[in-house]
């Protein structure tokens, strides 16, 4: 039985990866290459990644071969054998199709699943104090979701709001599947409710913006220290008077891109510097990763947007207990979502993304 048209582009891509896998093995077996440790390490890393990606592809090839051989027997002249083969076709096709589904899911999410650590940034937008409170609610929502999935949640930096919440909040999240789950959270988030600061019971609309960045390690991008200006100052953040007596806050400016990172969460200047470099690497990596920006629409610039109420991907409507994701035009129970049960939205967005990627592959 033939492969459904929707799956053919993925199989074609995997066949290309299989060819690349063979090329890597040939190069790794070359004695001249074996004398170059750096090159061997690079080849081994790519070879290992492709080997994992091609496990299901080999299962598919075996299942497809068995299905084709059984089809031939079912069409043969031996009546008894043909009947036996025909009775097995449905199960064999179901097995083949299940492997195809797994291949498509793994292939389309390979880039996201390869990300082991990510940076989550939340900023208050329009709405005054209520926007800061809402940014705090979003931070708590994501923290609970990460806790439910046993992902590591590390606060890198934050700037408290005047009435609670945050003007700005930055966290690192580590865990298998974390980036895949949260990759679609980037954009404008809007809230409609009666703020705690409202004395007349009126419903207000406020906004916050979220950005989701893969956390780039030192091997992913090399930043010349000469291109970075470092400034230190007194923290001025939480922690009491002791924080302010020493210059613990660190600000890094990447001169070629003018990207600025400020870290003041820790009392230790050393720890703040380390965290600042982690964040700077991720922002610079995203800035220069033009291929990913071209292939994926959720760039950091688009995620951050203007912070305006109208630039939104999702609305949290408290009076109606409804959370609406505007990209898929679906509603979800607000109480569950804001409490950290994001899985229904995550599942819906991943299904939508899968359909869009398949359509794009077929169109090529």
Secondary-structure map:
Blueprint: H1 8-28, H2 31-34, H3 37-53, H4 55-74, H5 79-108, H6 110-114, E1 117-124, H7 129-148, E2 152-160, E3 166-174, H8 178-182, E4 187-193, E5 204-214, E6 228-233, H9 241-244, E7 249-254, E8 259-263, H10 269-288, H11 290-295, H12 300-304, E9 314-317, E10 322-325, E11 330-333, H13 334-338, H14 343-363
Parallel strand pairs: 4-9
Antiparallel strand pairs: 1-3, 1-5, 2-3, 4-5, 6-7, 7-8, 9-10, 10-11
Helix pairs in contact: 1-3, 4-5
Radius of gyration equals 26 Å
Assembly type of the shown chains?
single chain
Briefly note the CATH topology name of the largest domain. Answer: Alpha-Beta Plaits
CATH class of the largest domain: Alpha Beta
Shape: flat
Give the overall average pLDDT: 83
* Strand arrangement in the largest pleated sheet: 2-3-1-5-4-9-10-11
CATH architecture heading of the largest domain: 2-Layer Sandwich
Number of strands: 11
Uncertain segments of ≥5 residues (pLDDT<50)? 238-244, 296-310
Instruction: Give the N-to-C terminal Cα separation.
Output: 24 Å
Strand fraction equals: 15-25%
Based on secondary structure, the structural category is: alpha+beta
How many domain units?
A: 3
Major pleated sheet? 8 strands, mixed
Share in helix: 40-55%
List the secondary-structure elements in sequence, H or E: HHHHHHEHEEHEEEHEEHHHEEEHH
Tally of individual helices: 14
């Amino acid at each position: 039985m033939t492969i459904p048209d929707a799956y053919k582009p993925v199989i074609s891509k995997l066949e290309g990866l299989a060819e690349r896998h063979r090329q890597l093995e040939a190069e790794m077996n070359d004695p001249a290459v074996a004398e170059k440790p750096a090159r061997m390490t690079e080849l081994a890393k790519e070879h290992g990644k492709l080997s994992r990606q091609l496990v299901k592809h080999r299962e598919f090839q075996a299942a497809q071969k068995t299905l084709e051989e059984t089809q031939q027997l079912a069409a043969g002249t031996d009546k008894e054998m043909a009947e036996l083969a025909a009775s097995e076709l449905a199960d064999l096709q179901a097995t083949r199709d299940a492997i195809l589904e797994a291949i498509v899911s793994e292939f389309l999410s390979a880039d996201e699943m390869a990300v082991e650590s990510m940076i989550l940034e939340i900023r208050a937008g329009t709405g005054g104090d209520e926007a800061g409170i809402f940014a705090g609610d979003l931070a708590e929502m994501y923290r609970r979701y990460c806790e439910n999935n046993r992902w590591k949640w590390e606060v890198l930096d934050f700037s408290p709001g005047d009435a609670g919440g945050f003007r700005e909040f930055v966290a690192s999240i580590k865990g298998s599947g974390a980036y895949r789950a949260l990759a679609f959270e980037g954009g404008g988030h809007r809230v409609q409710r009666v703020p705690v600061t409202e004395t007349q019971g009126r419903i207000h609309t406020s906004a916050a913006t979220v950005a989701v960045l893969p956390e780039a390690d030192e091997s992913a991008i090399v930043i010349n220290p000469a291109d970075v200006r470092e400034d230190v100052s007194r923290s001025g953040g939480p922690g009491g008077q002791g924080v302010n007596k020493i210059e613990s806050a660190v600000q890094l400016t990447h001169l070629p891109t003018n990207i600025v990172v400020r870290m003041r969460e820790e009392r230790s200047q050393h720890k703040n510097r380390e965290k600042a470099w982690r964040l700077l690497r991720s922002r610079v990596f995203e800035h220069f990763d033009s291929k990913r920006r071209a292939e994926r629409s959720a760039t950091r610039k688009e995620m951050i947007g203007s912070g305006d109420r109208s630039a939104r991907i999702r609305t949290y409507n408290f009076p109606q207990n409804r959370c609406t994701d505007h990209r898929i035009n679906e509603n979800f129970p607000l109480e569950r979502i804001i409490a950290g049960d994001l899985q229904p939205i995550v599942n819906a967005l991943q299904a939508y993304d899968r359909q869009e990627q398949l359509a794009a592959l077929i169109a090529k």
